[in-house]
UniProtKB/TrEMBL annotation:
Residues 5-51 form the Helix-turn-helix domain. Transmembrane segments: none annotated. Coiled coil: none annotated. This is Helix-turn-helix domain-containing protein. InterPro entries: DNA-bd_dom_put_sf, HTH_17, SinI_DNA-bd. GO terms for molecular function: DNA binding. It comes from Actinoallomurus iriomotensis. It comes from the Bacteria.
Length: 58
């Protein structure tokens, strides 16, 4: 089973604010899943997001 993170955990993992994390979600740079009212971030989505951001920065 893949690990999933809450919004706060994912923001902490990326060392960004919640606001920045929600902007990544809103601009489709970070995939999330929704379970009921909860929004969770798969660990693989964090890796994909970082890879994508590094490509843009290069």
């Amino acid at each position: 089973m893949n690990d999933v993170f809450t919004i706060d955990e994912a923001a902490e993992r990326l060392r960004v604010s919640r606001w920045t994390l929600y902007n990544l979600i809103r601009t489709n740079q970070l995939r999330t899943i929704k379970l009921g009212r909860r929004r969770l971030v798969p660990a693989s989505a964090l890796t994909e997001c970082l890879d994508q951001l590094m490509e843009v920065a290069a």
